[in-house]
Design a protein that fits this description.
- It is an enzyme of class 1 (oxidoreductase).
- There is one protein chain.
- By secondary structure, the chain is of the alpha/beta class.
- α1 packs across α3, α5 packs parallel to α6 and α9 packs across α11.
- It is elongated.
- The chain starts with a strand and ends in a 5-residue tail after the last helix.
């Protein structure tokens, strides 16, 4: 029986291993992590992450051929294939701070694998890592191997949160990169045989190590670039009276462009896009390619500009001040169908409004009050470091006085001067907006950062509506947003 062990029980490791266990009943799969509360949650009825369909998969396999454990060394030692799915946060200090990936956790995982291994192993990079990480890991393993052979593979994940289980069941492609040696090719075939249980062979792509590592960064950079491109167009649409949804549809019907990732919004978020582009920028700079680095930097600059532009639009529309005004924030997760708040645009929007002394009432169906308060008190990049290094509560009591987290959209909206829709949860489309209007201060504003509301219908009720990239309400034309 082949044994697989995955180090890291997060958004990648947990769902990926659960699906492998489901599709390969003859393989024993163990997910290990040093975080006891996280492993306890994986073994409970309340999983540590929210992902549609994940509960069912875990419950079908857990205790049969899928296990979650804190006994890291034991299971790594027994495994034939070890996936490493640990954090690769952006460095916050030292060489490459603010851009380079911090490989501390990766390196300690590699040293531990070398220490405890008593048999040959295939070590699989599952985390997003900089190009040439495999070479560094290989050196650590080789210099500490005690006669044991290690083969390093790169098998980047291309999951989208909210659809991760569907993506795993039916992937566009599975990418496996390895050394172009007989041993490396044999390792590729061993991992390919696992995925071949359910993925058609023509969708399993095999490359060299560096191509696989770079492909992950390139994929995320290209997707983020599309979002920044349409968001840049949204600003121009507002200035000219064009409708970004119509422009997106028009260009999306061109088969060379396609319709995906062309929805204008308040900005992209999630754990990967910004981090991977910063990583790409750093690699380009290190390889003497400043022009290429500057090109990718611009994708992040436009994303930051979009969030700032949104905040400026809110403040300028409401008589140039939100001081003391209640603003309802609908949605805090970076996208619907996930509770993940990493790099969510809501953080920067909320901080911008708090900077103008607004009072925020925040509602998200999947994000806890503790998480929201922690996110609003953190410095940039702190979110991706271990929990014990993160602030446990807001640093100032002022923040707590300015922010309340509620568990009902109508409660958030009651007596508010304005509403900001920051996540495209389906329930926000179905609210009774007549009731909402009656319970708000007048004039009542809605700032739709996801283009989910029916602006025409809301204007008929009496709202002043701002939708990203759409022709401006006459009120907003008279109060232009300053950039």
């Amino acid at each position: 029986m082949v044994k697989i062990c995955c180090i890291g029980a997060g958004y990648v490791g947990g769902p990926t291993m659960a699906v492998i266990a489901l599709k390969c009943p003859e393989i024993e799969v163990v997910v290990v992590d040093i975080a006891v509360p996280r492993i306890n949650a994986w073994n409970s009825d309340q999983l540590p992450i929210y992902e549609p369909g994940l509960d069912d998969v875990v419950k079908q396999c857990r205790g049969k051929n899928l296990f979650f454990s804190t006994d890291v060394e034991k299971h790594v030692s027994e495994a034939d294939i070890v996936f490493v799915s640990v954090n690769t946060p952006t460095k916050t200090q030292g060489l490459g701070a603010g851009k380079a990936a911090d490989l501390t956790y990766w390196e300690s995982a590699a040293r531990m694998i070398a220490d405890v291994s008593k048999s040959d192993k295939i070590v699989v990079e599952k985390s997003t890592v900089p190009v040439k990480t495999a070479e560094a890991i290989e050196r650590i393993l080789t210099h500490n191997r005690k006669g044991i052979n290690f083969n390093i593979l790169s098998n980047p994940e291309f999951l989208a949160e909210g659809t991760a289980i569907a993506d795993l069941f039916n992937p566009d492609r599975v990418l496996i990169g390895g050394r172009e040696t007989p041993e490396g090719q044999k390792a590729i075939q061993a991992l390919k045989a696992v995925y071949a249980h359910w993925v058609p062979e023509d969708r399993i792509l095999c490359t060299n190590l560096w191509s696989a590592e770079l492909s992950k960064l390139a994929a995320n950079a290209f997707l983020a670039q599309r979002i920044s491109s349409v968001n840049a167009m949204s600003a121009l649409c507002e200035a000219t009276g064009a409708d970004v949804s119509q422009v997106s549809h028009s260009i999306g019907t061109d088969s060379r462009i396609g319709p995906k990732f062309l929805n204008a919004s308040v900005g992209f978020g999630g754990s990967c896009f910004q981090k991977d582009i910063l990583n790409l920028v750093y690699i380009c700079e290190c390889n003497g390619l400043p022009e290429v680095a500057n090109y990718w930097k611009q994708v992040i600059k436009v994303n930051d500009y979009q969030k700032t532009r949104f905040v400026n639009r809110v403040v300028s529309s409401m008589f140039n001040t939100v001081s003391g005004k209640k603003i309802a924030i609908l949605g805090f997760a970076f996208k619907k169908d996930t509770g993940d708040t990493r790099e969510t645009p809501a953080i920067d929007v909320c901080k911008g409004l708090l900077g103008d002394k607004a009072k925020l009432s925040i509602y998200d169906p999947q994000v806890t009050e503790e998480q929201i308060m922690r996110d609003l008190s953190m410095k940039k990049f702190d979110w991706d470091h271990p929990a014990h290094l993160q602030p446990s509560s807001p640093t100032t009591s002022n923040k707590q006085q300015q922010v309340s987290v509620v568990f009902d959209a109508y409660e958030a909206i009651k007596d508010a001067h304005g509403i900001c829709v920051l996540t495209e949860w389906d329930e926000f489309k179905a609210l009774d907006y007549q009731k909402v209007y009656e319970n708000m201060q007048k004039p009542a504003f809605i700032f739709d950062g996801r283009n989910v509301v029916d602006a025409k219908k809301l204007r008929e009720i009496g709202f002043i509506v701002y939708s990203i990239g759409k022709p401006l309400d006459s009120w907003l034309k008279d109060m232009p947003a300053v950039a």
